């Protein structure tokens, strides 16, 4: 208006804008399977690179060019900054490295249908935030959103994560709950959405969930629904301050093309990645994290199984005096008291929870009725004596 010296007013400009809104085509949803580079897009379903198109509807792209592969391309030589982060995060363990790569492939390929969710846990400065940032690069920033575990548990707040392929729960504070929302989303169930000023509805949320925290989440669910879906990736090593590179993420971003190609080639058979993640679920380090977060899992780590139900009796709270070397429930109460846990489970809740918790150790609970009560196939390990069983001090 000023350039052509035409008269204008606020209402007149608003009318023009309203008219343009009616004339301009409505913007579509960004393609979930494309990673945007400055010079084009990489299709994660075909592994092909192509030019930008308006129909992709990408709102952001990574600020680096996609580079063609080099002869003999590998991570250590052609993505050295990513490789340095990976080896430190994995504690120099090859097995852990490939499992972290499998987790990144799950994000890249948007394999929400594996019905798993990722939890990266460890002290501050161990590389967890870098993992989340790399995942965001692989999913595409348009397809990534941040939330909290409480967001996933609330039908009102869940509206904010609909339409995204990667949901990051960054810097998750210490949390405990049954995890019904995260269990339903990762299980492929339709969940209730109750957005403001709109009618409530239910829908599936086809997204990979990545939680990042200093303290592992504590789930009260004892059905096994959360445990079957949870993949814990501990990052235990704190990188010394003098070894941290503030530009590390920018350098890794420049290696994105190499990383994407490596993941696509490494997991040509996607189920290889899934098998690695399932192996991580049952790893010793993941079990150690669960033991630290859940007293019942920790207690069950002191139990051994025999072939027949000739071990500890289940017992109850009315048997006096307590005999933790004979009764399983008494042993549990003794363990809770020795460790300073204030709220032991009731006998009924304990009896329901133990079979599923024992499955973390690949132990099947066997029981039989006797004149002295229900007898199990469980016995106490020798570690109980040193760690928490009551002792009679010899004067």
Automatic annotation (TrEMBL):
Molecular function terms from GO: ATP binding; helicase activity; hydrolase activity
Annotated Pfam families: D5_N (PF08706), DUF5906 (PF19263), Pox_D5 (PF03288)
UniProt-listed InterPro entries: DNA_primase/NTPase_C, Helicase_SF3_DNA-vir, NrS-1_pol-like_helicase, ORF904-like_C, P-loop_NTPase, Phage/plasmid_primase_P4_C, WH-like_DNA-bd_sf, WH_DNA-bd_sf
Keywords: ATP-binding, Helicase, Hydrolase, Nucleotide-binding
SF3 helicase domain segment(s): 95-248
Keyword Aminoacyl-tRNA synthetase: no
Highest taxon of source: Bacteria
Matches recorded under PANTHER family: ATP BINDING PROTEIN-RELATED, SF3 HELICASE DOMAIN-CONTAINING PROTEIN
Protein name: DNA primase
Species annotation: Yersinia kristensenii
């Amino acid at each position: 208006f000023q350039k052509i010296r035409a008269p204008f007013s606020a209402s007149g400009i608003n009318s023009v804008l309203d008219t343009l809104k009616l004339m301009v085509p409505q913007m579509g949803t960004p393609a979930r399977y494309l990673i945007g580079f400055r010079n084009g897009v990489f299709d994660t379903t075909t592994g092909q690179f192509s030019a930008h198109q308006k129909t992709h509807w990408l709102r952001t792209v990574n600020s680096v060019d996609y580079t063609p592969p080099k002869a003999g391309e590998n991570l250590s030589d052609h993505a050295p900054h990513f490789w340095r982060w990976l080896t430190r995060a994995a504690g120099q363990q090859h097995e852990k490295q490939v499992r972290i790569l499998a987790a990144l492939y799950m994000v890249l390929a948007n394999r929400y249908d594996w019905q798993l969710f990722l939890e990266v846990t460890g002290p501050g400065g161990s590389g967890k935030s870098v993992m989340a940032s790399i995942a965001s690069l692989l999913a595409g920033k348009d397809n990534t959103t941040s939330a909290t575990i409480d967001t996933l548990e609330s039908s009102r707040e869940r509206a904010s994560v609909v339409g995204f392929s990667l949901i990051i729960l960054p810097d998750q504070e210490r949390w405990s709950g049954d995890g019904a929302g995260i269990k339903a989303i990762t299980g492929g169930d339709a969940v209730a959405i109750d957005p403001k000023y709109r009618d409530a509805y239910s829908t599936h949320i086809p997204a990979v969930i990545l939680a990042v925290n200093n303290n592992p989440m504590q789930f009260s669910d004892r059905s096994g629904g959360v445990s079957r879906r949870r993949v814990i990736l501990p990052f235990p090593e704190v990188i010394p301050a003098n070894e941290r590179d503030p530009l590390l993420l920018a350098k890794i971003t420049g290696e994105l093309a190499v990383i994407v190609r490596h993941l696509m080639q490494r997991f040509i058979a996607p189920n290889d990645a899934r098998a690695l993640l399932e192996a991580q679920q049952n790893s010793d380090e993941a079990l150690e994290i669960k033991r630290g977060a859940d007293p019942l899992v920790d207690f069950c780590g002191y139990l051994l199984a025999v072939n027949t139900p000739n071990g500890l009796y289940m017992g109850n709270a009315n048997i006096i005096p307590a005999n933790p070397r004979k009764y399983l429930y008494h042993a549990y109460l003794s363990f809770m008291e020795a460790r300073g846990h204030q709220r032991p489970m009731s006998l009924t809740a304990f009896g329901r929870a133990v079979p599923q918790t024992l499955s973390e150790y690949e132990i099947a609970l066997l029981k039989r009725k006797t004149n002295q009560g229900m007898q199990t196939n469980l016995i106490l390990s020798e570690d109980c004596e040193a760690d928490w069983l009551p002792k009679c001090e010899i004067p």
